[in-house]
Amino acid sequence: LLQVLDHLDDHLKRSQYFRFLWFPHSENVSIIYQDPTSKPPSSSTSWFWDYAVGYYLLEFLLWISTFVPSLVCWINRCFFWLLFSSRVENVATSYKIFNYECRFKQHVQDWAIPIEKTKEALLELKAALENNPKMVAHYPVEVRFARGDEVWMSPCFQRDSCYMNIIMYRPYGKNVPHLNYWLIYEGIMKKHGGRPHWAKAHSCTQKDFERMYPGFPKFCSIREKLDPMGMFLNAYLEKVFY
After folding, report:
1. In this protein, which residues make up the domain named D-arabinono-1,4-lactone oxidase C-terminal (predicted)?
2. Most distant CA atoms of the chain, gap in Å
3. pLDDT of 122
């Protein structure tokens, strides 16, 4: 993990779409480069590894781990070596490359922080898990990067950003303890100036968004003019704007 974080600029320069997957409770990282190419289509996908192992076996083992949480550490390390430790190359049209199997039901959080905070924030998350041995985290923590923009309500507004996505699966639909993990993660993200992904879970309210987004008051003013009766609001958006 430290090798990737210490050479992050080199990875970002090497690939147009660089991201990496960290496997909690370990130092293991899977590096992913995604770039345009003129090579003919090719694929290393395998039903056995991608579904029999990477889906069905994983779901069964994570279900077992709901009774024995300490198994999660072993599962993360084992599946890294089974599915992510070897070098593979896939060539296809962009939508096939950028989309990937999300497996089964899951709880997800995804915040964008200033790109220069990547190393500090991820190491804090790692330390938090190490200091709370009863708290387990499923793999992977996906770390990806995006250029800054000028969209008022964009998590990347006026800054190059790192998205740090955490996940807790729900094997066979079963809920898993995740609240403590969620709160610690959110605390780290807020500490480093994070902004949550709009389509994923978070506990932020209007006051939080006022601090996070310089353009928030302007956006609210326009929204109220265009929708004075609140026709397009729902329970989630009411929490955001009021």
Report:
1. 3-240
2. 56
3. 97
Cα 158 from Cα 150, distance rounded (Å): 6
CA separation for the pair 152, 91 (Å, rounded): 35
Task: Give dist(CA 204, CA 107) in Å, integer.
Answer: 16
Q: Which helix (H) or strand (E) element contains residue 162?
A: strand 161-169
Hunting for tokens 């009774």 — which residue is that?
Answer: 67
Residue 167 to residues 44, 87, 104, 200, 231: CA-CA distances in angstroms?
25, 24, 11, 11, 33
Reading the block at residue 6, the tokens are 């210490």
Distance, CA of 241 to CA of 220 (rounded, Å):
7
Question: What pLDDT, in 10s, does the model give residues 225-236?
Answer: 999 998 999 988
What pLDDT, on a 0 to 100 scale, did the predictor assign at position 186? 96
What gap in Å lies between CA 135 and CA 72, rounded to an integer? Answer: 10
Single pTM value for the model: 0.90
